[in-house]
């Protein structure tokens, strides 16, 4: 199907991308897909016909398209009230438990993962944690593993977010967790944090989970917002199935649950706790 001018639509282009790659973005929301494909075409100065030809004949370009579609904005301790809530209301329950399993789904370049590890360290439960982080983007995962971020871009914002996340408490020193190189303009995560997490390339939409344990906390922030309703429901069901009873799911600040999922999770502040209840009215 084409539009009234006989041109392929952005949604139809996704079928071409699906044919030429292992990726399926057909259930991403129309608005987010349209914006991102338009940007790709502008950035590479391509018409739709040229975009299709390049997708069918250039594997390296396909990876660039995937990176552009899945780009996710993140920063250290983004949305500080969420981290403050986790620090004060979620982590204390794990002080007397032998282990805590955590999964960051759609971890992007890793700032969220390292933010959580800093909380774990300050709560005295870092050594108990088994941490997994996954993303569809090869480039994002490579950057996450490096744990190196621009000093000039991140330092002041990171300090501001850190102060807010640890309001009413002792604020950790940046140098406890980062090596600072002003010459190379880098904040570099220290090795004891960098080697803690198992980073895995994973397509949340299509692939089976590469993990063999359930989780106490699952992060998936600012990812669901790019999916249509049906796909959102399948992903949330996946998280529910892979959380321990009472486990916590952390979504983005603009992401909410609808329908019967409101009965399967109890909202507590900015996070969702897995319940075992079910109401047939949904």
TrEMBL record:
InterPro entries, per database record: Bact_Chemotaxis_MeTrfase, CheR_C, CheR_MeTrfase, SAM-dependent_MTases_sf
MF (Gene Ontology): S-adenosylmethionine-dependent methyltransferase activity
Keyword Transferase recorded: yes
Stored Pfam families: CheR
Keyword Methyltransferase: yes
Residues covered by the CheR-type methyltransferase domain: 1-278
PROSITE patterns recorded: CHER
Keyword annotations of the record: Methyltransferase, Transferase
Gene Ontology terms: biological process: methylation
Transmembrane spans: none
Stated name of the protein: Chemotaxis protein methyltransferase CheR
């Amino acid at each position: 199907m084409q539009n009234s001018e006989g041109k392929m639509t952005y949604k139809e282009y996704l079928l071409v991308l699906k044919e030429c790659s292992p990726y399926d973005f057909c259930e991403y929301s129309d608005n987010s897909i349209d914006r991102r494909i338009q940007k790709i075409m502008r950035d590479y100065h391509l018409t739709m016909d040229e975009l299709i030809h390049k997708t069918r004949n250039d594997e390296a370009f396909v990876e660039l398209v995937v990176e552009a579609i899945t780009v996710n904005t993140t920063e250290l301790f983004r949305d500080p009230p969420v981290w403050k809530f986790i620090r004060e209301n979620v982590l204390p329950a794990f002080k007397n438990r032998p282990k805590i399993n955590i999964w960051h789904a759609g971890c992007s370049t890793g700032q969220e993962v390292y933010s959580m590890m800093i909380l774990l360290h300050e709560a005295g439960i870092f050594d108990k944690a088994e941490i997994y982080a996954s993303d569809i983007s090869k480039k994002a995962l490579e950057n996450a593993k490096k744990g190196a971020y621009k000093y000039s871009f991140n330092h002041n914002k990171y300090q501001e977010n850190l102060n807010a996340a640890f309001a009413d408490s002792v604020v950790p020193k940046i140098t406890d967790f980062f090596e600072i190189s002003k010459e190379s303009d880098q904040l570099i995560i220290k090795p004891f944090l960098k080697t803690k997490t198992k980073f895995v390339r994973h397509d949340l939409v299509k692939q089976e989970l590469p993990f063999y344990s359930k989780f106490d906390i699952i992060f998936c922030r600012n990812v669901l917002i790019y999916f249509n309703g049906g796909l959102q429901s399948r992903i949330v069901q996946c998280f529910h199935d892979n959380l321990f009873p009472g486990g916590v799911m952390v979504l983005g600040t603009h992401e909410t649950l609808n329908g019967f999922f409101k009965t399967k999770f109890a909202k507590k502040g900015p996070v969702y706790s897995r319940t075992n209840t079910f109401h047939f009215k949904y």
